[in-house]
Amino acid sequence: MAAAGDPSYLALLIERAAHDGLANHPQWRALLHYRSGASGARSEVTDRRFFLSPNGERDPRAELDATLAAFFSADPPARREEPAQCAFVARYRWLVARLQIDPARLAPIDCPRFAAWYARIDPRAMTLVFPTAYLNNPASMFGQTLLRVDAHGQDEDSRLLAYAINYGADTEGDGGALFMIKGVAGGYGGYFSIGPYYDKVREYSDLQDRDIWEFRLALDAAEVRRAVEHLWELRGVRFDYYFFSDNCAYQLLTLLDVARPDLGLAEQFDAWVIPSETLRALARAGVLVEARFRPAAGTRLAERASRLRPAHVELARALGESPDDLEAQLARLGDAERTAVLALAYDYAYYRHLAARGADPARRERLAELLRAKAAGGDADPPADAGHATGRPDLGHGSAMLSLGLGRSSEADFRSLRLRPAYHELLDPGEGYKRGAQINFLDLTLRLLPAAGRVETHALTVLDIVSLAPRTRLLRPISWQLRTGWQRALVPGTERPALLWQLEGGAGLAWEPAERLMLYTFAVLAAEAGEALAGDRALGPGLRAGALWSPAPGWGLALSAGVLDYRSGGAFERTEARFELRRTLGSHQQLGLAARAERVPGTDHGEALLAWRQFF
Amino acid sequence: MKNVVLTLAAAALVAPLAGHANPPNSVGCGLGSKLFDGQSGVAPQVLAVTTNGTLGNQTFGITSGTLGCDSDGTVVASQRVPVFVAANLDRLAGDMAGGGGETLESLAVLLNIEERDRAPFFSTVRVNFERIVTSPDVSAGELLDGLYMVMAEDATLSRYVGT
Question: Which of A40, A182, A424, A559 has the most CB within a 10 Å radius?
Fold first, then answer.
């Protein structure tokens, strides 16, 4: 064993650390990922390679003593390739500073591999990166976060060249439903990684079409250094990945806690970590400064199109789509028009090329032809800098909501209590959320009927997703919706709505004929079950249509109508109309007035509700 | 992703064997990757819940999946240009034809092109676009060769081309 210092000094350091209570210091707890539980401290790292003491996972003091001991050896500890001073470089630097370790008695060891790695990253600052939702995928509103390490000498124009820290599951190639099930159940290992930021921008911005927000973090040089050094310690170290709780957003908070333990970010979260909520936690801690928006491929496309006359958008689409002679179609345009039309045509063709997921030779040839025409044109490209259409996600409403209301129905007066743990519905304050996207999860509404002196469940929505993706001159997406849960509804032969289990899914079209106005229509297939139904169940097709309008900032209006034609079970038709007006008071409160009318053969039902909502 | 990794790895092995005279620093990692390769993209991934952190091919030790380019997740200095070009071919071609943009700006930074020479760099690249992007499936190596050749012929830019 190569000695790096004198052993009597080790006893002194261990004693000094115990005297100072370093094992319980927030920095030590952050570096070892300890969290307090019923049975004392326990590290969230389950990988043996991360601990130097056999009891390190549960005993902060034993791990600290073993770490100090290991620093005296130039040989790598078990399952490591480098001496402990190099493998655990953040622990080493912190303990050297706290215990004022004398280099004459515990000699520092050279760490060339770490030094080279650190020099390539060359950290100066950190930026939290938040890719927002995909078009037509409301589930992606839950988001994703990355940490970008900004280098010395990097400026606004060379942000792409930075490195990004990512935490994710090693899914071993699993996807879709299997990933969801294993991911939720903790079936995967989670790992930190680092790679070029441009790879991530390409992945999110181009391939997944998600806008990206970049938030500079108010961390000083020493804090940034500590976080990056700690990342080195986590190289190849396995965590247990859980989709809802130990996900990327949570683990990146643990890294920021290492940078500055006072933040205490990770302990604010427990069973359920929504990335946009971690953003708001960072905002509350005062470490988010300066937000920058990076528009996705589709956003850039829409923005370019919005600056052109409709006829030129059509022309751009045709140029991007058909293999006809380019120059003939461009001949009548002026220089500036030609540049703008070609820029849009290329962006459109490229977007379609990515969507087609293939290397179609005809498309490739067309793309190259458009590029040559662009290069030959007069002006350089107009910059495509989209505005912040969706608003900053850190300023968005909290994803949980409590609502209290007073109502009157055709049968009785009622009081309403509604609790929705997550996430966003169409009329909620729009800032920071994708327009036209709704996802409600475990949404419970209770009603108190004072006259009858009882409380009843009005609705328990398990999942309710609506994705309104407006059709434009360029893109023609299909909107969709899916809803399941228990809901009171009118059934023939009963006097008042009965609680039924419902499942409804549909596909449809949406348009945006004017700013702040969206129209939509869906063809649906619905099923419901309940004792009140003849035959206990019903199944049938239906149609729904509606409008969403924001007549002025802070005001939202929704109108919708639907008809369901139940064929099997007790065959009957149910028609329904809804109206809802909401006024946003600040970003966390709303006042709403809603009315609903329902009809089945032989019975009508109507109700109105005035409700106040608090988001938190 | 596996295919991409394999292609890049194979390309890294083959690139040094390419026949024509390359400036020394255009031999590098991932240069066999092709323009408009058409990776899976913005298809309607309606129910795809890849939202919340999967690794993809990014781990310590495998970023661009190329041998000798990568070290503990970072790119070794001598390979920063080729790895960047290989990873950003599509965007680069678009920026070159348009005469500017973030990706081309970043390449200028990697090539150590000074601020005052950026505008001439952008316009030279645009004017000579067809000599750089020679075909719809130009490889990263070919694109970089073309770029270096165009730069070498330019009075202002020739000093940025390594010999």
Answer: A424
